[in-house]
Amino acid sequence: MSQDSIKIRNAAIDEAKQLTDSCKRAFDSDSEFGAPGPGGPPGYDSVEWNIDKIKNRYLQYYTILIDSDIVGGFIVGDRGPGYQVCERIWVDPDYMRQGIGSRAFELIWDKYPSADLWVLGTPEWNQRTNLFYQKIGFVQIGRTHEHSWDGIYYEKRITERYPKAMSRIGDIHDGRQRIIVEGHVDGIASTRTVTSRKTGEELKVADATLTDDSGSITLVLWGDQIRQVRLDSRIRIEEGYAKSYRDNLQLSIGKWGMMITLNE
Ligand SMILES: CC(C)(COP(=O)(O)OP(=O)(O)OC[C@H]1O[C@@H](n2cnc3c(N)ncnc32)[C@H](O)[C@@H]1OP(=O)(O)O)[C@@H](O)C(=O)NCCC(=O)NCCS
Asked: Which parts of the chain fold into alpha helices (H)?
């Protein structure tokens, strides 16, 4: 197969069924590469989920084709200027290991000339994806723990520039959203229990102190996030937001946020 026959284009809603079928077959084949059982990420086998993502204005959903045959899909997310995320890629098992995934990434990189950095996460158990991402130049920068699986977090630098989307702690101000920031965890206060005003539910909360060479900020950790943060570690937050509470500026991790424990 010639590399020129591999194409990507914006996915169309009438392709959703074929995209979903190929996605289900691709992820179900993970059971040969360390998956605990058949299955895949949320919505991987749902036509409705895929239609929703094709329509979603915060994502760009691409169809991967060989000539005019649909052989896979690629979903790109946007975290802010210069900082892109590969949300999902798959290639139909009948077409795997022929360089299509690698070529799809090259085509995607060409489509985003202003990206300085690409990031993605993949389960630690996935022997295939970890090899694949490393082969195409992604470097492991840390780990995530917020899903039911432990994740390896990768990035690939396209330029030497510091992506505009990444903030220094000293530049964070009240009301900022979609914050990407890295820092050192200098302290974690003891966990306290608060009652949610909305639901009446009891919630666990702990304040950590996050520092870089421009300043320090209180990072508010909720529930499961508390056990994911280690004292003296370096972390990256994606999709954080800042709010002043009793005159103290606080950083929280949003609903779509991520916390990555960076390599030592
Ligand atoms: C991961 C995936 C997209 C790779 O697509 P692909 O078109 O098969 O990948 P390529 O042919 O470009 O492979 C490039 C390199 O990745 C590595 N790789 C890919 N499949 C591999 C396998 N089964 N075993 C070992 N290494 C593998 C190899 O280093 C390969 O280079 P080589 O063939 O020269 O040795 C595909 O396997 C897939 O769809 N997997 C299921 C879905 C998934 O896990 N998606 C990613 C998470 S969102």
From this structure: 16-28, 47-55, 100-111, 127-135, 225-228
